[in-house]
Amino acid sequence: MSLPPAWVDALFGKLALRYGAAFWRQYPDLDIQLVKDDWGHVLDGRSGGAIAYALANLPGDRPPNAIQFRNLCNAWQGVSNPLAIGHDAVPADPARVDRLMRGLADIQRHRDGMSPAEYCMQRIKAIVASRGGVMSAAQRHVFECCARVTGGESMDQVGGFVPIPSEQLPWNQPRDEA
């Protein structure tokens, strides 16, 4: 497996923007597609969060090669897959866990048999009423989604993410060869 080619293309665009010609001078006589394929292979398994971290922490003096960039990605402390937390993970603060659990219990106790969507709508109404009756765009969006769910729609049908088919992405469009 490799990093998706679209990610590598976007990454190369960022690196070329940050370092200019210095980035391309690393590969003077190489087929750029082979270079991109190598970067994709070297960065296999790195998450978007790790790549964003590496881009935010690039060295200022010279552009990194694929292995140096992978090392920057590996320095990221985020967790992209909570089920993959290793033995070196920082244990949760028991006091914070206790506070969060009490908060969840309070929510459950106050729901009075309402669905989570109905409870959310009730809470938004109360917050908006306490702040002069003006609903923010985010509150309106959540409220409308909850209202549709309580009307019988599933969460998949409400504000769900629908990815753009890969063949419609700009980098997969045929180019006019003039």
What can you see in these coordinates?
With 178 residues, this protein is mainly α. The chain has two domains: 5-79; 100-155, no CATH class. The protein is 53% helix and 0% strand. The protein is built from eight helices and no strands. The protein has helices spanning 5-19, 21-24, 32-42, 48-56, 66-74, 94-110, 116-130, 137-150. It is elongated and about 70 Å long. Residues 80-87 and 155-162 have low confidence and may be disordered.
Tell me, what's the shape? Answer: elongated
Helical content, roughly? 40-55%
Please summarize the sheet with the most strands: none
Give the percentage of residues in beta strands: under 5%
So how many helices? 8
Number of domains: 2
> Topology as H/E string?
HHHHHHHH
Supply database-style keywords.
single chain; 178 residues; mainly alpha; 2 domains; 8 helices; 53% helix; 0% strand
Secondary-structure map:
Layout: H1 5-19, H2 21-24, H3 32-42, H4 48-56, H5 66-74, H6 94-110, H7 116-130, H8 137-150
Helix pairs in contact: 1-3, 4-5, 7-8
In brief, what are we looking at here?
The protein is mainly alpha-helical. It is 53% helix and 0% strand.
